[in-house]
Write a structure and sequence with these properties.
2 helices
Length: 92
């Protein structure tokens, strides 16, 4: 699964559960699949950072209702691989 596939699966799963806004999507397919996805969900900015070389996904969360998230976002979740199921409970 690529980061693009993960993004599509995540958005499909979120559509029926919570309102979200895609803020940014950057994917470097030629560089081990590195990339990041940023969403605004329930007043928080969530950023998924994927390291394709290590196959590691990290989820970071901003302070509530911040227009521009600070540099020190809280890391709320990390996993190996791109699995949507384990992330859905955090975002709801």
């Amino acid at each position: 699964m690529t980061l693009q596939d993960f993004k599509n699966d995540l958005e499909q799963a979120l559509l029926s559960k919570v309102r979200f806004e895609l803020l940014e999507f950057h994917y470097l397919g030629y560089k081990h699949g590195h990339g990041y996805i940023a969403y605004r969900i329930k007043g928080y900015v969530y950023v998924f950072v994927y390291d394709g070389r290590e196959d590691r996904l990290i989820l970071r969360k901003s302070n509530s209702h911040s227009v521009y998230p600070s540099e020190t976002m809280e890391e709320v979740f990390a996993q190996n691989g791109l699995s949507v199921a384990s992330i859905l409970t955090i975002l709801q």
